[in-house]
Amino acid sequence: MSDVSVDTNESATNSEQPQSSGRRKFLTVGTCVVGAVGAAGAAVPFVASWLPSAKAKAAGADVEVDISSIQPGQMIGVKWRGKPVWIVRRTPELLKSLSAHEEQLSDPNSEVAQQPEFAQNQYRSLKEEYLVLVGICTHLGCSPKHLAKGAFEEYAEGIAEGFFCPCHGSKFDMAGRVFSGVPAPSNLVVPLYQYVGDDTIIIGSEAEAS
Ligand code: FES
């Protein structure tokens, strides 16, 4: 068992405005995460003996994450192969809103191979509700901020929630799809992952075809 970083803002991790760093708070909660650590910036203690060895991590060990405690609208961060991975539990309203701004996106249908085949859909996910993304901007590698509860409208009129990269102004929607006219050339990466049961995701591998 290890710890995972969870944003105390009910809408998500990284959901502060770029200029209001004081709003960002992480809770450290004990969850059934194997091999996961907190998102970048969060001081997250963990029980080392439950983590994969350094050798296993260097080799790219899969990470098992218990998602049962993620509330609707909430995001958690874990680390996989040294990269931040975000898991967002999207609300029905948010899922519905994804189709309303597709004309503003560079690659709304995920035609560029930035995701496994199973995620080449409108939601870019295996299950609509849960978005799993590598939290690294596809421009030069900064970590975008998650802006929720209307904060994203400052960068995309009429769109309440999304990811904004403060380094050079790239914008992504809540499926990780990049907006047109920004430096980032492609959508955020969806890693390989699979469900084992309803409440557990393994990041790093996909289910074998049956
Ligand atoms: S690194 Fe994100 S916009 Fe440049």
Short précis:
This protein has 210 residues and is mainly β. Helix content is 5%, strand content 24%. The strands form three sheets. A five-stranded antiparallel sheet has the order 2-1-4-5-6, with no helix packed on it.
Task: Describe the protein.
By secondary structure, this protein is mainly beta. It has a single domain (2-203), classed as Rieske Iron-sulfur Protein (3-layer Sandwich), CATH 2.102.10.10. It has 2 helices and 11 strands, in the order ββαβββαββββββ. Strands 2-1-4-5-6 form a 5-stranded antiparallel sheet, with no helix packed on it. Strand 8 (162-165) and strand 9 form a beta hairpin. The radius of gyration is 16 Å and the shape is globular. Bound molecules: FE2/S2 (inorganic) cluster.
- CA-CA gap between termini: 30 Å
Helix and strand pattern: EEHEEEHEEEEEE
Bound molecules: FE2/S2 (inorganic) cluster
Kindly report the CATH topology.
Answer: Rieske Iron-sulfur Protein
- In round numbers, the mean pLDDT is 80
What is the CATH architecture assignment?
3-layer Sandwich
Q: Helix content range of the residues, please?
A: under 10%
Classify the beta-strand content into a percent band.
15-25%
Shape: globular
Unreliable stretches covering 5 or more consecutive residues = 8-51
Structural class: mainly beta
CATH class: Mainly Beta
